[in-house]
Amino acid sequence: MSVFDARVRDGLARTGMLRVGDEEIKTPAAVDILRLFPSLLDRPFTNLPLSAPKSDADKYYVAGKDPVSFHPLADCPAESGDVVMVPGWRSVLGDARRYAEYLSPLFAGTPPDVARYAPACALPSNAAMLIATGFDLFDYTAVDLASVQKKFCMTEGEFDASYMDKGVCGCEGCRTGNLALHNRLALDREIAVVKTWIESGQIRDLIEQRCRLHAEQVGLLRHLDRSPVTSAALPAVRSSRFMANSAESMTRPEIAFFEDRVVNRFVPSRNDVCVLLPCAARKPYSLSKTHQKFQRVIEGRAHEVIVTSPLGVVPRELELLYPAGHYDVPVTGYWDREESAILVEYVAAYLAKHRYERVICHLEGGAKAVATAAAEKAGVVLEHTCNDDRPSSPDSLRALNNALHDCRKRRSDSIRGTLAWQFGELVDTKGWITKGRYPEQKIFDKKQQIFSIDSSTGLLRPTMEGWQFISGYRVTISDGFVPQGDILAPGIFDCDPNIREGDEVYVTGSGYLATGKAAMSADEMLRSSRGVAVRVRKTKKM
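Above: the chain's sequence. Below: its structure in token form.
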């Protein structure tokens, strides 16, 4: 009997522990699958093609057990903790569209806490993508077949066996002239590399590196960026770096997620005057010398909004949030046409939704061109104060100061803005006091601490008293369930459907309250029977 526990998630990718009998396997992993599951030797109809019609699925599908077989048109009886085998997945490795399409029934038709096994698929060149799309278990069939075909396997692709003599690898297989051993070790090594990137929350950065030499993987990445399966698995925030080094970085789902909340949840603290400012290499922006110059000139007389690639717009109140406070991008001084087109949409959506009486454009180069096109699309007239293409020059700063001459000073409320983005609720923060050195700050209502800032993600962490200002993001545990430490998925009775991994949540139950961080999404909390759902920070018994 097999039992699987997911431990660390990064989008669809996971690390976990699979127990089969007395054997424990840290996943993702490649294993001797027939030794692990000997029943596969005499199971008929385990290779029903994914493209087989419903009539064939009804007639020939055999689910089996340990592992349970899957077909997109059949009811899969897999239960939490099982291993689900997806026969025929190899047939879609070169077809990005079908690969992406089949993920939807796979994730919808099986519990989220099963281990997914892709038979005869894994090579060093595609293991990262397979793991990034939710597969946990592999065999050595594909690399052994490559060895028979005299192919030398690397993460860059499959090459002639003569590559073994070129000194490109120093593994035991290469040292002893054993091609089959090299190919197996290359697969094991790549899986180990992928694990470390999952644990650091940067599997996407690795995928953007790995896919560059494989057109079908670039195509798959583009399909996945438009897939609801990928979007649903996104965490609310990360604490890792966001490396925007390729064209595919522009379409990362977390950018669309961030900007959607900027447009539809966030509400500016004022709507009389807005100043569009350029970004800075240092994050958060306000710690950079350039932005300190801007802020000394503006002096709270306008709402500050940063125009940047690849995000689009970042209101000053949200500069600490992921990915605004975490991204790094190569600076060339040139924004290409496709990049600009995407950014124009984000900036135009912001200006159309949040109407200001005046919008001052203190930008140069590509950012200025994007803002100009976006303003025209949103029907907004810009006032330009940077006429020498140097936003921090004395002349530009003087022009900005003159443009704000008659404007009233008003306090920027980053707590109100962050609460709106994070919880989708407008909270009256009048009388609240912020203490501490930015960004390590705590928020008080009179003498009672109600929030603290998680500087690694930018989110606000409510205390027990802070939750009285928030109505959503509740997790209800079942009657009779007595938590011991973290909240496990089997004890969840109900939860807010908006919850994503990484969100701050409030746990309620009979005689029990807790505040903590969601370790899985709302859907996974309700459908899983295993694993930690909420990592508890503080509890209170009634």
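DSSP finds 17 helices and 27 strands in the chain.
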